[in-house]
């Protein structure tokens, strides 16, 4: 079987679910004829027609609002924002309506919409095409926030997100859209939405990460292994809710926590994980937990992008401090 | 030959200004080599060569403003390599409005995963410890694995580290015999007796060479007890009773490796100097051999501790109830005193006497120590 990219896995999941469920519709800027800015929706319009694959005007507020309307009335829209940084005009619809629909109607209506958006830096784009703002959404009650970091998980988690009755913010790490490949079986099997995924087992350190940083984290884990430090790499995947049970049970073994995320440090999701670890597992820790994150700055223009982005060496250094500094 | 037009550099901006050429006509360039820097209204952008080849002609010079779609370069393309062609083709497919999505594959397996964590993972010997306890254990060199925590679910606390630290000291023993007795008598005395120590010194310039210090001290205590009997007494606070003795039974503190012994020279006043020395030698030998009966340790009416035989000038000896006084003799020192207006070097014995102020007055104590000195300064 051929290996496919993360981007192709998103496309595959959309094809599968649109075929399986006639209520699934796709909307967004250039998602139809053009196949999407990154080609995530390529081929859908040809296959499922213009009633189910809708090229929207260049108006994100409209994409958000229409999606809420569709979702509350029985459809399962999968909306695309071209870049995560373009979501702001739609925030009112997302936060005040999508996230609250179930609560506001006392459960009479739900909002089973998926809002897809590529996120993160590393493609040499201007700053508002490169941000990582998953924490903004994780803070809002009512959303699920999901970030896949591999083709298989993109496929399985997108299926699960479309089938979920909660609104899902589905953020795709565009830096690794085409750089990670694996075999994906198009069997329609969804992956669970409420769980982490353990990518590598280790006894010395628990490394929690998500998105494109998974690649550098795995590379760092392999380097560290050759230096005698065995890292357990956990892909958080579900940014909200957070599967603390998996992280805590890993910490029982390792006693050391390192969180790696591209988003800025202050009030990032890493802060939440550290706080919960302090609440529930303070006494398991052999070392103060640590974060390797993006800086507390606006994402720089692309010439300085590499200063902002996390490199394998940053993770290796932090991990060694945690292990060697706290024997 | 191929013409290379200025591409859309994003954001739909129509014009760009040439900032700098990086190649000259006749140069051979490689795919993706930077050929020109242009400035749009938003950014400085470096434009890469779209294919490898030789530069035939450049259009525009630094400072010129050119439009999207205007011819920028004419390149004589070199034979496209077998790899370059599909890559270029793929690149077009990766289209995005801005940026460049890399297609270079990572050599990491991102799709080998377990859902959640380790199934049926049995974590053994998980240590839960307060962070402060971990730090403490590190400082004190205590192994956390050797401790069973006293907190909830075996949580190790600071107190556990301290108690483990005490346990771990090598050679720890349970006290027995004289040492065990000392613990209780000293604690009781410290708790109940109103200990007051008075110090004085006796000048020994009258003493002949080789004087027996122990005998002189015993004799001095006998003398002082006759002069001031209030210190040679027993006192019982519970019954508010005091018994001033006529006989002088001197307890003599003897240090040994087994602990502190205080054998009693009963009716000390009935002994000759020689007899005292014989008694002392015999008793000390008995203590060293741990052959001393309990009866030899009873009924002291006053105690003498000659710590100065080892070292120490003044001290605060502790009274053993029901006795009310203990006399301590320090190491004999040499000192300069004024005598007839002249400085003179003399030998002096420092004396420290502790008395129970509940049973004796300060005046009685002072008179007693005055009598002690009187007797000690005499020629033998």
Mean pLDDT across all amino acids of chain B: 85
Helix- and strand-based class of chain B? alpha+beta
Low-pLDDT runs of chain B: 81-92
First-residue to last-residue Cα separation of chain B? 132 Å
The CATH class label of the largest domain in chain A is Alpha Beta
Tally the structural domains of chain A. Answer: 2
Shape category of chain A: globular
In CATH terms, the superfamily of the largest domain in chain B is Chloramphenicol acetyltransferase-like domain
Oligomer: heterodimer
Reported for the largest beta sheet of chain A, the result is: 7 strands, mixed
- Order of helices and strands of chain B, N to C? EEEEEEEEHEHHHEHEEEEEEHEEEEH
CATH topology of the largest domain in chain B: Chloramphenicol Acetyltransferase
The average pLDDT of chain A is: 96
Rg of chain A computed from alpha carbons, rounded to a whole number of angstroms: 19 Å
Corresponding CATH superfamily of the largest domain in chain A:
Thiamin diphosphate (ThDP)-binding fold, Pyr/PP domains
Beta content of chain A comes to: 15-25%
Largest sheet of chain B: 7 strands, mixed
Strand arrangement across the biggest beta sheet of chain A: 3-2-4-5-7-6-12
Topology of this protein?
The complex is a heterodimer of chains A (327) and B (380).
Chain A: E1 3-5, H1 6-20, E2 24-28, H2 44-48, E3 53-55, H3 60-72, E4 76-80, H4 91-98, H5 101-104, E5 114-119, H6 134-138, E6 144-146, H7 151-163, E7 168-173, E8 181-183, E9 197-200, E10 205-209, H8 213-226, E11 231-235, E12 238-240, H9 244-254, E13 257-264, H10 269-281, E14 290-294, H11 305-308, H12 312-324
Parallel strand pairs in A: 2-3, 2-4, 4-5, 5-7, 6-7, 10-11, 10-13, 13-14
Antiparallel strand pairs in A: 1-8, 6-12, 9-11
Chain B: E1 2-5, E2 15-21, E3 28-29, E4 34-39, E5 44-48, E6 53-58, E7 65-67, E8 71-77, H1 84-93, E9 114-115, H2 131-140, H3 158-168, H4 177-192, E10 195-203, H5 213-227, E11 233-236, E12 241-244, E13 250-252, E14 254-256, E15 259-261, E16 264-265, H6 273-288, E17 302-305, E18 325-329, E19 333-339, E20 342-356, H7 362-377
Helix pairs in contact in B: 2-3, 5-7
């Amino acid at each position: 079987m051929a290996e496919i990219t993360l981007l192709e896995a998103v496309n595959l999941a959309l094809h599968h679910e649109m075929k399986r469920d006639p209520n699934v519709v796709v909307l967004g800027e250039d998602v139809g004829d053009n196949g999407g800015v990154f080609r995530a929706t390529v081929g859908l319009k040809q296959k499922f027609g213009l009633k189910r694959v809708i090229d929207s005007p260049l108006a994100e507020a409209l994409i958000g609002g229409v999606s809420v309307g569709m979702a509350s009335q029985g459809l399962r829209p999968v909306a695309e924002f071209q870049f995560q940084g373009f979501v702001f005009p739609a925030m009112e619809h997302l936060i005040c309506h999508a996230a609250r629909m179930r609560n506001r109607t006392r459960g009479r209506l739900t909002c089973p919409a998926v809002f897809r958006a590529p996120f993160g830096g590393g493609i040499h784009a201007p700053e508002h095409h490169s941000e990582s703002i998953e924490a903004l959404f994780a803070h809002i009650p009512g959303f699920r926030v999901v970030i896949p970091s591999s083709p298989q998980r993109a496929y399985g988690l997108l299926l699960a997100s479309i089938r979920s009755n909660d609104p899902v913010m589905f953020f795709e790490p565009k830096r690794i859209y085409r750089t990670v490949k694996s075999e994906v079986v198009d069997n329609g099997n969804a992956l669970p939405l409420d769980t982490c995924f353990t990518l590598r087992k280790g006894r010395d350190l628990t490394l929690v990460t998500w998105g494109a940083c998974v690649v550098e984290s795995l590379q760092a884990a392999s380097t560290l292994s050759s230096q005698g430090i065995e890292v357990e790499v956990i892909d958080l995947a579900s940014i909200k809710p957070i599967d603390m049970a998996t992280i805590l049970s890993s910490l029982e073994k390792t006693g050391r926590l390192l969180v790696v995320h591209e988003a800025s440090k202050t009030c990032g999701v890493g802060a939440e994980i550290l706080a919960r670890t302090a609440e529930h597992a303070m006494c398991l820790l052999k070392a103060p937990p640590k974060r390797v994150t993006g800086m507390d700055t606006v994402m720089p223009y692309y010439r300085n992008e590499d200063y902002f982005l996390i490199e394998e060496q940053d993770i290796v250094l932090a991990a060694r401090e945690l292990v060697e500094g706290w024997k | 030959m191929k013409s290379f037009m200025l591409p859309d550099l994003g954001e739909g901006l129509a014009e760009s200004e040439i900032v700098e050429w990086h190649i000259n006509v006749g140069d051979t360039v490689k795919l993706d080599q930077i050929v020109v820097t242009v400035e749009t209204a938003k950014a400085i952008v470096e434009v890469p060569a779209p294919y490898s080849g030789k530069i035939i002609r450049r259009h525009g010079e630094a400072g010129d403003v050119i439009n999207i779609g205007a011819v920028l370069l004419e390149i004589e393309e070199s034979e496209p390599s077998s790899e370059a062609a599909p890559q270029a083709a793929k690149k077009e497919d990766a289209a995005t409005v801005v940026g460049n999505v890399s297609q270079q594959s990572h050599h990491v397996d991102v799709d080998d995963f377990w859902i959640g964590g380790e199934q049926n993972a049995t974590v053994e010997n998980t240590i839960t410890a307060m962070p402060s306890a971990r730090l403490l254990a590190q400082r004190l060199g205590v192994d956390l694995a050797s401790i069973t925590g006293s907190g909830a679910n075996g949580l190790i606390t600071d107190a556990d580290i301290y108690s483990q630290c005490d346990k771990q000291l090598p050679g720890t023993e349970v006290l027995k015999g004289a040492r065990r007795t000392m613990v209780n008598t000293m604690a009781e005395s410290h708790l109940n007796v109103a200990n007051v120590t008075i110090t004085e010194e006796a000048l020994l310039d009258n003493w002949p060479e080789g004087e027996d210090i122990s005998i002189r001290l015993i004799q001095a205590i006998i003398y002082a007890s006759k002069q001031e009997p209030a210190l040679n007494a027993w006192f019982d606070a519970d019954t508010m009773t005091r018994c001033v003795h006529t006989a002088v039974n001197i307890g003599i503190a003897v240090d040994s490796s087994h602990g502190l012994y205080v054998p009693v020279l009963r009716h000390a006043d009935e002994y000759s100097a020689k007899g005292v020395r014989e008694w002392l030698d015999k008793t000390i030998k008995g203590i060293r051999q741990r052959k001393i009966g309990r009866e030899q340790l009873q009924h002291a009416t006053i105690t003498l501790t000659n710590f100065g035989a080892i070292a120490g000038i003044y001290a605060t000896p502790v009274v053993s109830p029901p006795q009310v006084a203990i006399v301590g003799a320090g190491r004999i020192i040499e000192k300069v005193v004024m005598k007839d207006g002249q400085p003179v070097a003399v030998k002096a014995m420092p004396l420290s006497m502790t008395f129970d102020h509940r049973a004796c007055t300060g005046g009685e104590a002072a008179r007693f120590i005055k009598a002690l000195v009187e007797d000690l300064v005499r020629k033998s």
